[in-house]
Predict the structure.
Amino acid sequence: MIIMEQKPFEEILSFLKDEKSIFIVGCAQCATVCKVGGEEEVKAMKDKLESQGKKVSGWVVIDPACQSVEVKKNFQANKDKITSSDAILVMACGNGIQSVKDSAERIKMAKPVHPGCNTLFLGEVVRAGYFEEKCSLCGDCLLEVTGGICPVTRCSKGLLNGPCGGSSEGKCEVDPERDCGWALIYEELKKRGKLDRMKAIQPAKDHSKLIKPRTLTLGS
Ligand code: SF4
Ligand code: SF4
């Protein structure tokens, strides 16, 4: 899932300094799990904005904010409130924020859209309130040869062909608090009797797969 944090309230308030009436959009999926854009946080944001003299014309938590059809459906259902607003504050990931903006434009309900969150990484929910980055979306997955541990993400230098030499007692030289990704890969391959995979040379990443923005059409 997408991991994010809420922006400091003072920063959000500065975005809204020229706008009186705000419609708030949250997201029922990742932003809810991260506790930055679910119903609870959206209502808390409404109260805080109103305490600063802003009018909150309405709010909605979309399931999810990154799905155009859901944004359009929710916007049509709140048409009057959105039309009467000066701007929309979106408490979701950067993808959700832009999806809300673009979907609103497609149904001729465009408004200035402000971000309420900082999007951090793609990660695992290890336990409630604790998230770990696991994949950098490189477009050419190497997990088969690295024992299911991503060197692009879990090695601080993103090395593809073994450790850098700075690892000490299984920890990374960049941050001794972190495990060395390549030490983890080594231990995993050893456990599986697949250490010979360490000898295979991985070619440099094909960065043409990273040219952005990327799109995908199923069935093509
Ligand atoms: S190699 Fe790592 S960054 Fe690339 S797709 Fe696989 S898990 Fe993600
Ligand atoms: S110590 Fe390990 S994780 Fe850190 S940069 Fe070197 S190989 Fe990568």
